[in-house]
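Why does residue order matter? Because the sequence determines the fold. Keep that principle in mind as you read this record.
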Amino acid sequence: MALLEVKDLHVAYGAIRALHGISFHVNEGEVVSLIGANGAGKSTTLRTISGLLPASQGEVIYDGELVTAADASRVVKKGLIQVPEGRRIFAPLTVRENLEMGAFTRTDRAEVAASMDYVFQLFPRLKERLEQTGGTLSGGEQQMLAVGRALMSKPRLLLMDEPSMGLAPILVEEIFEIIGEISREGVTILLVEQNAHMALSVADRGYVLETGTIQLDGTADDLAADASVRAAYLGG
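Structure:
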């Protein structure tokens, strides 16, 4: 069953059209990757789904409800959570305070505490740096904090925007191992990523986005074996 449906979505920045009528879906429990070059419209897609950008045409349906024009805060309360590109943690706040900000819409204090324990299981380094300010963390630790903050919102659908950006290869592998673990816990994931090899390695299905249009879709294995995808995104 589709948890997210995007139908004929058009988005423009003034006179510049960023998305040209894209349609795709994400089934409950899946990891779906959107791959494509920089400027293809991947981040625009996530920001529009989240309610941060207005669509000029088309529909976004989440859990059977039309949310195309929904306020971003209402979308968050329904469990649709985004890990933004560039992490965007609260640099002056401590790790603890950043995580608590992720739970600001929740009132179930015991479950919030359980969520924080779960974050520490995934990212032990965050527990070690609990009272350290976010701005003093390394890039990899900030990415862990951004993911942890999103998990504190108890997501049903997690939108992840370029989680490997700027990270050393060993940290990229660690982040993608965590993405797999989050998926196994039952969270549905829509992943935007330039590192197509890593994106397809954790995905069930994928879509190739080029200049605002979807050019190809299929299972992750099929896309990884496709000659055009290999030539454009997988180094041959």
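The chain has a mean pLDDT of 92.
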